[in-house]
Design brief:
Blueprint: E1 13-15, E2 21-28, E3 33-37, E4 43-47, E5 53-58, E6 63-67, E7 83-86, E8 98-107, E9 115-120, E10 132-134
Antiparallel strand pairs: 1-2, 1-10, 2-3, 4-5, 4-7, 5-6, 6-9, 7-8, 8-9
Length: 139
């Protein structure tokens, strides 16, 4: 129920009250806005502890895959429970917004160059009703 009448602008970041990433404003109308969920996007991300960088892409329900994590000694430190946040790369989302926590990490037999990293968002995308829109900062 917030659109141009409240100053909302296209591409602003959308989060839950807890600060979890939901998506971005894709379209602004007079009294409403349409949000593109991260389930339909790719998000540049970083594992907070290890600083490993990758791209979050959709999985099922509130599960996502953190892709392009190299299977190297430095990334062996990635553990279940590590938090994944936006990296700020790509310009769509500011850095440091919580995407979710890692629930599975393992080496892959089919593609041994990369680890398989699964994270879970705390957002129940089927039941989200209220969100916050973050104003883009001037660069």
């Amino acid at each position: 129920n917030a659109g141009a009448d409240r100053g909302v602008q296209k591409n602003w970041t959308v989060v839950t009250a807890e600060g979890l990433l939901v998506g971005h404003v894709a379209q602004v109308e007079k009294n409403s806005s349409i949000v593109q969920l991260i389930r339909r996007s790719r998000v540049s991300a970083v594992v907070q502890k290890s600083r490993a960088q990758g791209i979050v892409s959709r999985g099922q329900n509130n599960l996502f895959e953190l892709r392009y994590i190299e299977a190297n000694e430095a990334n062996n430190a990635i553990q279940i429970g590590d938090r994944v946040v936006t990296s700020g790369l790509g310009g769509r989302f500011p850095e440091g917004i919580l995407i979710g926590e890692i629930v599975d990490v393992r080496d892959q037999k089919r593609d041994p160059l990369f680890k398989k990293v699964i994270l879970e968002s705390g957002v129940d995308f089927s039941k989200v009703e209220e969100v916050f829109v973050m104003r883009l900062s001037e660069r």
